Amino acid sequence: MAPEVFRQQTYNEKADVYGYAILMYEILHRFMMIKATDGSFEECQAYARRVSEGMYRPPINPKMPPPLKHLIEGCWNQAPSKRPSMCEVVARLLECQSTIDLASLDRALQKQGGKGESSSEGGCCAVS
Question: For residue 72, how many other CB atoms are within 10 A of its CB?
Fold first, then answer.
């Protein structure tokens, strides 16, 4: 959930851009953000509050190519006005597709369990 949505402020399509960043993070890292909590309502609320206050974003794998890393970071920027439009996101993803060996990236991240930790969940998401 975008910070402005959690804070019950006026929001626009940039909240969806934020949500897209979270989905992109989860797919590339093979990690569901809900697992960052114990699943209780209280813990989920505390986590959402930390995110909405700009105090937390999950760590991005150091093997992530800079263009993808910067795209994720831009999309989950605390300030909605600083997030790219979805048209820009698509253009940047197409550029990544033509400049990054996504199959090699997928293999490298899969070996690391996505985040550099061993993954007991296993990965099944191809990024190519």
Answer: 20
